[in-house]
Amino acid sequence: MYDATLGLLRDHGYARLRIDDVAAAAGVAKTTLYRRWPSLPALVLDALESAIGPRRAPATGDALADLAALLDVLYATLVTSPLAATVRAVGADLIHQPDLAADYRRRFVDPLRGAAIALVAAGRRDGTFATDSDPALVVDAVIGPLIYRGLIDEPMPSRDALLALGLGILRPGEGPAGG
Questions:
Q1: Spatial contact of 87 and 73, defined as CB atoms under 8 Å apart
Q2: Can you give the pLDDT at residue 92?
Q3: What 3 state SS string does 10-74 have?
Q4: What is the four-CA torsion angle of 147, 17, 80, 1, rounded to 10 degrees?
Q5: Alpha carbon 115 to its chain's center
Q6: Distance from the Cα of residue 119 to its chain's centroid
Q7: CB neighbours (10 Å) of residue 127?
Q8: Res. 177 pLDDT band, cuts 50 70 90
């Protein structure tokens, strides 16, 4: 079922995905899908999670290096993965479905965002980063361009530009945040 779902997502996008098409592509009855998943978005979330796999960065104890490694994982998920546009589109669509949006956030957003916030907070405590920076706001400021540009269909910033943006906030005065 996952292969059929992912293939249709890649070929037609999330907005045009229909449960009947998934059932036909998987060679099963629509009722078979509904016995296992309560809705098409629930199936899509499971399929995406299965395809993307675990998204973790190494924890070396160096807040700056770990944050850069975590940015690599995030960038792969939201920009370079063959499913990146689908991950972003599903997240945007689920805004109108609060229960599934909470599940999407729990699976795709919170693990990486929470880890990044913890790294910024650790860097503040050990003096690596400016102590007046709000960890959640810094993380959201770095991730925000990926979400926004995905929504307005503009080119994505480079990974290096995002890192420079974050460092410009976390270590003011050490260089430009552009890129």
A1: no
A2: 82
A3: HHHCCCCCCHHHHHHHHCCCHHHHHHHCCCHHHHHHHHHHHHHCCCCCCCCCCHHHHHHHHHHHH
A4: 130
A5: 13
A6: 17
A7: 9
A8: very low
